[in-house]
Amino acid sequence: xxxxxxxxxxxxxxxxxxxxxxxxxxxxxxxxxxxxxxxxxxxxxxxxxxxxxxxxxxxxxxxxxxxxxxxxxxxxxxxxxxxxxxxxxxxxxxxxxxxxxxxxxxxxxxxxxxxxxxxxxxxxxxxxxxxxxxxxxxxxxxxxxxxxxxxxxxxx
Length: 156
Fold this sequence. Notes:
Blueprint: E1 5-12, E2 15-22, E3 25-31, H1 34-47, H2 50-53, E4 57-61, H3 65-77, H4 123-130, H5 152-155
Parallel strand pairs: 1-4
Antiparallel strand pairs: 1-2, 2-3
């Protein structure tokens, strides 16, 4: 039966100290965060040998595996604050004389073609103007609604 490997995490300011004990050895390291400390534990397990790779690793923070899991998952799922983005100022607008050399010259419009018509009216206006008003009068009907007797007193 494999003996479990114990990883004990201790927070020291912004850094984390981790001690891995197993296979008759004890390894200690510091890391800049809990995620880096957890990665260091994986490296220590590999250093302990082939037998340790299949062993169960128990991660403890303040003596509790649950507390370690909560701290680790919070660190993993928390989004880092975005650094402010520096937007460069736009360059001065280039005139036609200062056009960059990599932009090809645009062809001149063909003189024999008429310009295309521009759509100036709303399409809905065009449809209602093209169609005459409907000669069919609106149908009117009256509906009589009666209430059905639903209570025993009303049926009697």
